Amino acid sequence: MRDPQSERRQLTRMPNPRVVVAVLALAGMSASFMQTIVLPIQSELPELLNASREDTAWVITATLLSAAVVTPIAGRLGDMYGKRRIALALIAVLVVGSVVAALSHSVGLLIVGRVLQGAIVGVIPLGISILRDVLHEDRLGGAIALVSATLGVGGALGLPMSALVSENFDWHVLFWMAAGLGGVDFVLVLALVPVSTLRSLGRFDWIGAIGLTVGLVGVLLAVSRGNEWGWLSPQVLLLGVGGLAVFGVWGWYELRHDSPLVDLRVAVRPPVLLTNLSSIMLGFALFASNVAFPQLLELPLATGVGLGLSLLVASLILMPSGLAMMVMSPIAARLMGSVGPRLLLVAGSLLLVVSYLMSIFFATQIWQVLLINVIIGIGIGLGYAAMPTLIMRAVPKSETAAANGLNALMRSLGTSFASAAVGGILALNSVSMGGAQVPTAAGFNLAFVFGGSAALLGAILALFIPTARTEPRPSLP
Predict the structure, then answer these.
(1) Per-residue pLDDT tens over the stretch 27-58
(2) Which of 354-357's residues contact partners 24+ apart within 8 Å by CB, and which partners?
(3) Burial class (CB in 10 A: 0-12, 13-18, 19+), 73
């Protein structure tokens, strides 16, 4: 039974804004850390789990699919039943998944744990929406920028930490660390983040959730496994075309539902639609560098293109990119107040264009790669700070979590497309050396061209984003 007096005390207490932002930022960093936790042991998983390389690839793919499916659904649930409540549920799922992975000795059980871990990504858009509910407008820009930056910071800090742990301890320790981090997140959110009071009307759209899940799984599986299975293979065509067909039926159904999972009428408004399309491009530009630069740094010097670094040293070279995102958060907030979020998104995208132009001509020394990645971090920091603000200015307050969840999904689609496209480009532009296929300089340059082109398209789309605000719809007390 709930204690009404306890709930009333929680609803009337004045939260410390800095504490709320810090707790939500830590939860966001935990979410991005889960995306990189297995990268140091990815190549060793077939031997560690006595499984084929194709089977162990699902350890990465499963988390991607889980995060993409859960994020928009969690946003809608947060708007309806309370953002903090759903955030706590996702963190609890992370802890369970981490324990399952820590106890696993087979690829199947590890995949189950990774599916559960992927749910934590939904905490980031929920956290951004909580900030809108509890913070004064003067503090909101900087807080959103900081929580958005955790997408890069967690990965940047997590990769060298994971590499260090995997080199010195049993690989299961990585997942016990994740469980401990999730436990800390749960306690802090429960104790320090206020209860969400703003709720949206209606009932949860279970059919819409199932349709979105089926469509996303089909499309993302086709994209993420296309290089391995063959883009014209029957399974890729079936998944891709089938997923798109499901999306068509799903969209028809959502437009006719009284309480849709995703309000497509809001989603197609120019401010929301153009921001989401720009988010796909920015996600692509970010992940193109995440795929290309680690390989460039770690390939042996004998290849003529690689810089011969270990995974740990390479991750330390890439780490300042995430730190630059965090440093940019207060600067982005001030800039947003003077130039607005739209121009901030344009500026961030153009910085990414500059970084990729530099990559084509100057990424031949370690310090050059370090500098380029700092510029990428600054650009992503500006762009990721602007996108949630643009979304929240264009949707009713009662739909902020769902709208931010959809925006996070768009970024995930961009990263998925980048992983497939850049992976395919490097595979096609490679030569055999010592019994292994090694990407060529031309392959890396083409990958950089794709990343820069996506960033440029994102800047062009952002230029056309209107700045009108939307009046909120009625909401439950």
Answers:
(1) 888 888 887 788 778 778 888 888 887 788 88
(2) 354/379, 355/289, 355/379, 355/452, 356/285, 356/288, 356/289, 356/448, 356/449, 356/451, 356/452, 356/455, 357/452
(3) buried
Question: Which is nearest to 270 in space by CA: 417, 413, 395, 145?
Answer: 395
Distances (CA, A) of 254 to 73, 213, 323, 401, 463: 14, 14, 40, 18, 29
Spatial CA neighbour of 117 closest among 209, 208, 181: 181
- Read off the pLDDT of residues 167-226 as tens digits, 9 standing for 90 and up: 888 889 999 999 999 999 999 999 999 887 666 767 888 999 999 999 988 988 888 888
On the question of a common fold for 15-197 and 265-471, the answer reads yes
185 Rama sector, left if φ>0, alpha if ψ -120 to 50, beta otherwise: alpha
Residue 434, token pair as written in the block? 């010592």
Which residues are within 8 A (CB) of 314 and not within 5 positions of it... i.e. 6 or more apart? 294, 297, 298
* Phi and psi at residue 352, to the nearest 5°: -65, -40
**Secondary structure class of 323 (helix, strand, coil):** helix
Q: Which two tokens stand for residue 346?
A: 């344009």
3 pLDDT band, cuts 50/70/90, is low
Residue type, position 469, single letter: R
**Residue 382 and residue 345: Cα distance in Å, rounded?**
6
Question: What is the architecture, at CATH level 2, of domain 15-197?
Answer: Up-down Bundle (1.20)
Rounded to two decimals, the pTM is: 0.83
**Beta partners for residue 430, in sequence order:** 439
- The Cα–Cα gap between 181 and 91 comes to 10
Dihedral over Cα of 334, 457, 399, 79: its sign = negative
Distances (CA, A) of 248 to 70, 192, 254, 367: 20, 42, 10, 48
**CATH architecture entry for 265-471:** Up-down Bundle (1.20)
Question: How many CA atoms are closer than 13 Å to the CA of 300, on its beta-carbon side?
Answer: 7
Structure tokens at 242: 């089938």
Residue closest to 403 by CA, chosen among 411, 395, 415:
395
Domain ranges of the chain: 15-197, 206-260, 265-471
Burial of 208 (0-12, 13-18, 19+ CB in 10 A): buried
The angle formed by the CA atoms of residues 208, 275 and 205, to the nearest 5 degrees, is: 10
* Calpha distance 282→411 (Å, rounded): 7
* Three-class DSSP category at 121: helix
Alpha carbons within 13 angstroms on the beta-carbon side of residue 305 total 23
Using DSSP's 3-state secondary structure scheme, residue 431 falls into strand
The DSSP letter of residue 282 is H
Give the phi and the psi of residue 433 in degrees, each rounded to 5. -145, 120
Burial of 232 (0-12, 13-18, 19+ CB in 10 A): exposed
Burial of 323 (0-12, 13-18, 19+ CB in 10 A): middle
